[in-house]
Design a protein that fits this description.
Layout lengths: L1 E8 L5 H15 L3 E8 L5 H10 L4 H11 L3 E4 L7 H10 L3 E5 L13 E2 L2 E2 L9 H5 L6 H21 L2 E4 L2 H10 L6 E3 L20 E5 L8 H11 L3 E4 L5 H9 L22 H5 L17 E5 L3 H9 L1 E6 L9 H9 L3 E3 L5 H5 L8 H12 L2 H19 L1 H23 L2
Parallel strand pairs: 1-2, 1-3, 3-4, 4-7, 7-8, 9-10, 9-12, 10-11, 12-13
Antiparallel strand pairs: 5-6
Helix pairs in contact: 2-6, 3-4, 4-6, 8-14, 12-15, 15-16
């Protein structure tokens, strides 16, 4: 097939950029003619971003020209805000391509995409009513909140009109989007996938030296639950990532208040005079990061790690924790754990139970403590569950299954496009 991928890169890159890059590589490996057209919000003045969002995107002719030049049968769009917008989809269809809009989060309705604010999930914005995002100033200042409320409301109807099919990342994700106003009968489930080369040959979780929690350090990821559970279960914990919640999490790990666990000096690993875990990871054997002495209940913060360092950490873990409070659709933190052959303890919200085969109550620290403690006390169970994770990952989230779903989605989009234009 001939496919054109569209994506507006975020100011802070994350899982969606990875998803687009891996899709680009997969289509090429499978013999398709694939072209990637990207724009970026990094360094874009906020005034320019606001104008593009309110206008429905900028320079749609570039997209139409790319469709004509490549002969694209399908335009597969990801994030479109602010520089591509609904006009990119309209231009693609006018140039003769079928259009697929993949929804990686709740951005169609929610100004901050994660549907989480003030310590709880929030789905007040639904349909074309995005006024709650302005009332709550979800984008921070009143001005930016107003731009997003108006821009999303103006674009939503046109995005829906110019997308032949929608791709959602899981059953729970799709159900929530349809509840919020996504039209029924036009979406297909297309979770993220793991390339074949990324799967471990076997599980080594029985030899894992610590539990691992990785991602952006923000409140909705629930990393505080992981820290409390690891302390209660007496399990060493490595926290990989950076973000605005890091000071609070470090204080919690060090004993941040009455009744909070005090985990000793290693909790502040990576501070002044202490080597960062990223540097230590290269000192172990193949796939085995050398962390130094990690005692029961110790917490080590690594900061941001490059993909190879993070992969080395997963290889040395005995459990992966994904305790998100928001409704994550298909996070790589869980997928990468499956591919590494490490048992994944995940929350019960959003798409996490679909990935891990079950979930723990998001804010029930006692449940997390008991589950982690029982798993840690039984290396044989860790190995068995790790092998089951590998099998589940290969079957449901491997590239062969993804490619099959992808071609079926493209075929349906082309069929829908044919119905809308006639013979």
């Amino acid at each position: 097939m001939r496919v054109l991928l569209l994506h507006n890169r975020y100011r802070a890159e994350g899982g969606e950029e990875r998803a687009v890059g891996e899709l680009h590589e997969l289509l090429g490996r499978r013999g398709h003619e694939v072209t990637l057209l990207e724009r970026s919000s990094r360094g874009l003045p906020r005034s320019a971003a606001a104008r593009a969002l309110l206008a429905g995107g900028a320079d749609p002719e570039e997209v139409a020209a790319a469709v004509r030049r490549t002969g694209a049968e399908v335009v597969h769009a990801h994030n479109l805000h602010p520089l591509l917008g609904w006009r990119a989809l309209a231009a693609a269809r006018a140039a003769g391509a079928a259009t697929v809009l993949q929804l990686h989060n709740f951005r169609l309705f929610c100004a901050i995409a994660v549907a989480y604010r003030d310590g709880h999930r929030c789905f007040e914005c639904r349909g074309a009513n995005t006024a709650p995002g302005l009332v709550h100033r979800c984008r921070g200042g009143t001005g930016e909140a107003a731009v997003y409320a108006l821009g999303l409301a103006r674009q939503q109807r046109r995005l829906v009109a110019h997308a032949d099919r929608f791709a959602v990342l899981g059953r729970a994700h799709g159900a929530r989007l349809h509840e919020l106003g996504l039209p029924p009968g036009r979406s297909d489930t297309l979770p993220n996938f793991i390339p074949d080369a990324a799967f471990a040959p076997r599980s080594r979780a029985d030899r894992g030296a610590y539990a691992l929690v990785a991602g952006r350090l923000v409140e909705e990821k629930g990393f505080d639950t992981a820290i409390r559970a690891a302390a209660g279960a007496g399990v060493p914990l490595v926290v990989a990532g950076e973000g605005p919640d890091e000071p609070r999490l470090r204080a919690l790990a060090a004993g941040g208040g009455p009744g909070e666990p005090r985990l000793g000096a290693l909790a502040a690993g990576g501070g002044p005079g202490e080597p960062r875990l990223g540097a230590l990871a290269a000192g172990g054997g193949p796939g085995e990061p050398r962390l130094g002495a990690l005692a029961a209940g110790d917490v080590r913060f690594t900061g941001w790690l490059a993909a190879p360092e993070l992969a080395a950490l997963r290889a040395g873990a005995g459990a992966i924790l994904v305790p998100s409070r928001c409704e994550e659709a298909c996070p790589y933190a869980a997928l990468d754990g499956l591919a590494a052959g490490v048992p994944v303890l995940a929350g019960d919200r959003g798409g996490l139970p679909e990935l891990a085969g079950g979930g723990l109550p998001a804010d029930d620290v006692a449940a997390w403590t008991d589950a982690l403690g029982a798993l840690w006390a039984d290396p044989a169970a860790r190995r068995s569950r790790g092998e089951a994770a590998l099998a589940r990952g290969r079957e449901r989230f491997g590239e062969a299954a993804h490619h099959e779903r992808l071609l079926a989605l493209y075929a349906r989009a082309i069929e829908e496009r044919g119905r809308s234009t006639g013979p």
